[in-house]
């Protein structure tokens, strides 16, 4: 059966399930007393993944890796990789931009990705998806053609960094220069937006697991981008240990931009105190 798998048809079916699951996230966001949970644990995350796990395995019965419901790795060549709400802690703090992330590995290669942010600051619901066999990424159902392969850091481009960067804008502006920087939750959604042409690179300064990045990695492949670790090496998913901690930092997007950013001293951001900007400061934010 899997030898004749129609990936574009599978993508359409999986997208339908992700969009339905996204309604749970919207409803949670709109609760009068706010989303349930604290820290980085939200009740809706488990509810979404339980729903998605059953639906996805009904579509393709194979291995599975999920943030909330655990994993089953048997050596099957196919593996679903799911984060039901990437950016939970920001979601619970009232920040828009967390995302459902569904990826599919074939022999450890990301070949399908769906990243859906149902509540965003600037785009409403935003679903970015692709699989092998498709000529273009789909963004909210419309084809998008992006080529990251020759893009560079320059004054016309942006780098997507975590929401925490808003507390240290001067350092982030310096480290992302000559590009602007854009703060937002969810490394999955940052990678997806890079793949869709909104920026040249997405950065995570903290350890990531497979469920954080597989879907975004697939989308980057569609746009001629790469996903590199803190040493500038391509990220892979060949072992259970590698799935559990893909990298300590990651840089996804145009290869040259990722390599340039990966060698900069990001420890400065992690070690620095919160900045207090003077009125009238002029920083290169998106």
Features:
Fructose-1,6-Bisphosphatase, Chain A, domain 1, alpha+beta, single chain, 286 residues, 8-stranded mixed sheet, D-Maltodextrin-Binding Protein, domain 2, globular
Q: What would a concise description of this structure say?
A:
It comes from Metapseudomonas lalkuanensis. This is Inositol monophosphatase. The chain has 286 residues and is of the alpha+beta class.
Describe the structure.
This protein has 286 residues and is of the alpha+beta class. It has two domains: 2-144, Fructose-1,6-Bisphosphatase, Chain A, domain 1; 158-271, D-Maltodextrin-Binding Protein, domain 2 (3-Layer(aba) Sandwich). Helices cover 33% and strands 24% of the residues. It is built from nine helices and 15 strands. It has helices at residues 7-29, 43-59, 88-92, 169-176, 187-195, 210-222, 240-244, 255-262, 267-271, and strands at residues 37-38, 41-42, 63-66, 70-72, 78-86, 99-106, 109-117, 126-131, 137-139, 142-144, 158-161, 180-183, 201-204, 226-229, 250-253. The strands form three sheets. An eight-stranded mixed β-sheet has the order 4-3-5-6-7-8-9-10, sandwiched between helices.
CATH architecture of the largest domain: 2-Layer Sandwich
Number of helices: 9
Can you tell me the CATH topology of the largest domain?
Fructose-1,6-Bisphosphatase, Chain A, domain 1
Helix and strand pattern: HEEHEEEHEEEEEEHEHEHEHEHH
Low-confidence stretches: 279-285
Protein name: Inositol monophosphatase
Pfam families: Inositol_P (PF00459)
GO molecular function: inositol monophosphate 1-phosphatase activity; metal ion binding
InterPro entries: Inositol_monophosphatase-like
């Amino acid at each position: 059966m899997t030898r004749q798998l129609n990936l574009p048809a599978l993508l359409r079916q999986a997208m339908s399930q992700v969009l339905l699951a996204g309604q749970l996230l919207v409803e949670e966001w709109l609760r009068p007393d706010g989303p349930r949970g604290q820290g980085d644990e939200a009740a809706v995350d488990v509810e979404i993944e339980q729903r998605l796990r059953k639906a996805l395995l009904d579509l393709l019965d194979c291995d599975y890796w999920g943030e909330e419901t655990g994993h089953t790795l048997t050596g099957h060549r196919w593996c679903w990789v799911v984060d039901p709400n990437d950016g939970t802690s920001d979601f619970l703090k009232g920040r828009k931009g967390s995302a459902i992330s569904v990826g599919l590995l074939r022999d450890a290669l990301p070949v399908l990705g769906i990243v859906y942010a149902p509540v965003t600051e600037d785009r409403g619901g935003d679903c970015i998806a692709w699989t092998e066999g498709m000529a273009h990424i789909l963004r909210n159902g419309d084809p998008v053609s992006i080529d990251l392969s020759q893009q560079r850091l320059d004054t016309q481009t942006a780098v997507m960094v975590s929401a925490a960067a808003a507390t240290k804008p001067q350092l982030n502006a310096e480290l992302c220069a000559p590009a602007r920087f854009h703060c937002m939750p969810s490394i999955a959604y940052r990678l997806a937006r890079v793949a869709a042409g909104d920026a040249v690179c997405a950065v995570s300064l903290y350890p990531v697991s497979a469920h954080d990045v597989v879907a975004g990695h697939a989308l980057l492949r569609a746009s001629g981008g790469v996903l590199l670790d803190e040493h500038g090496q391509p990220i892979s998913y060949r072992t259970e240990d590698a799935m559990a901690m893909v990298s300590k930092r990651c840089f996804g997007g145009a290869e040259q931009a990722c390599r340039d950013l990966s060698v900069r001293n990001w420890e400065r951001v992690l070690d620095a105190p919160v900045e207090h900007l003077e009125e009238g400061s002029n920083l290169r934010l998106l």
